[in-house]
Amino acid sequence: MAGETPENSGAPLEKRHKQSAVVARLTVACFVAMRSGYPRKHLGAVFEELLVALAIRINDDMGARALTASDISRYFGLPRSNVRRCLDVLIGEGVVRKEGERGYRGELDWLASRIDAEYFVRIRDAIITAADELKALDTITPAGC
Question: Does domain 42-113 sit in CATH 1.10.10.10?
Fold first, then answer.
């Protein structure tokens, strides 16, 4: 039932709670930092654009064929019309470019223009902090073990 403490509570549950909080802080820090590149919109308004751009960056890094709007739509479960709208915005802002008939790639010139961007340093620092916190939690031995 909601509000009741599970029987398996105690040290393992406390550790899991702390791990969840670390991941939550990391996720929020990353999205807030990424949103700083979109001063005209709130985070909710750019969330899908960020997801689409991230999927393209990951795909490019893997050296895979250019993603299509359909690929991205299937992966995230987003309507294809939403993905196309996001792609149009991202192309307009120079974040991604069209490749061939239906493919999309990240625009390296956009990355180059932000090589030392403050938001990226904040994301990197948040990841390092979270990794350190999670490693520290892994070294904690639950009572009774």
Answer: yes
